[in-house]
Amino acid sequence: MTGHHQPTRGRPRVALVTCADLPDLDPDDRLLLDPLARRGVAVDVLDWADPAVDWPAYDLAVLRSPWDYALRRDEFVAWASTVPALANPADVVRWNTDKRYLAELSAAGVPTVPTSWVAPGESWQPPAEGGEYVVKPAVSAGSQDTGRYDPADPGHRELAVAHVRRLSEAGRLVMVQPYLDAVDTAGETALLFLAGPDGPRFSHAIRKGPMLTGPDLGIEGLYRPEEITARTATPEQLAVADRALAAVPGGPERLLYARVDLIPGADGAPVLVELELTEPSLFLGHADGAADRLADAILTHLARAAA
């Protein structure tokens, strides 16, 4: 389907944006195709980096699986600014694809995982004691270039230093965070929000099992495999999600979708790990009606654009 247009006959045209490695979308996103077709929407699946695509020809371009952008973020952000009707909007993409946004959310009062930053060229030594910690780049997708380290293990200390050096020499800003061991039992909770007439509405939640088992040894493909099950969100989790969404620059009303990733902190209260507004997996297959709700959210955005 990539690069080809369906006959529209006056129907709204929507591009689902992917990358060359996933020309037919991620399997979860393919669940959206039938609901959109039933609603009279003509859909094309297109690679964001394909120079032949006429993006202005689409009533809406929906970012779904452009997961190869991490090593060429500047190119991706520049491309996003050229797409007239992009969801989520290009300024949100610019802000959200660099995890320094976590510092802004923390300053706004959102409980977040404590984070220290290592700029390219800065020296860094791993903590000599304390709990395990995570090293990852500020620009990444799919848990790539991410590792978990134990300060009590001399081998881990050497690997952590090498990990930071590797990222730094590539000109990448590095994040260092404590490993929240509650993820080993409670897992990570992702809360999914989809656009409604009055702003993002909670759709469903999932549990993601622990993924980081040790130092970064590289992964095959675009993302680490995930263990996903359905989950019921708690009022405390929803309250943190609301605070995070309220702090999005420009307001949350423009968002087509949002994913709020939470883990219990040391005191058991939920803290934000990531606020995914660019190309998050939405786990449509893990909640009844989720694909239909996303299709309706797309219609909401189309109606706003036409108004």
Walkthrough of the structure:
- The chain is an alpha+beta fold.
- It contains eight helices and 13 strands.
- The protein has helices at 27-30, 33-38, 73-80, 90-96, 101-107, 154-169, 235-246, 290-306, and strands spanning 13-18, 42-47, 60-63, 86-87, 116-118, 133-137, 147-149, 174-178, 188-196, 199-208, 228-231, 257-264, 270-276.
- The strands form three sheets. The chain has a five-stranded antiparallel β-sheet. It has a four-stranded parallel β-sheet with strand order 2-1-3-4.
- Mean pLDDT is 90; it is low at 1-7.
Structural class comes to alpha+beta
In which range does the helix fraction lie? 25-40%
The geometry reads as globular
Q: Give the mean pLDDT.
A: 90
Q: pLDDT below 50 for ≥5 consecutive residues: which ranges? A: 1-7
- Estimate the strand proportion: 15-25%
Largest sheet: 5 strands, antiparallel
- Rg value: 20 Å
Q: Count the beta strands.
A: 13
CA-to-CA gap between the ends?
30 Å
Helix run count? 8
- The neighbouring-strand order within the major sheet is 11-10-9-12-13
What order do the SSEs take from the amino end to the carboxyl end, as H and E? Answer: EHHEEHEHHEEEHEEEEHEEH
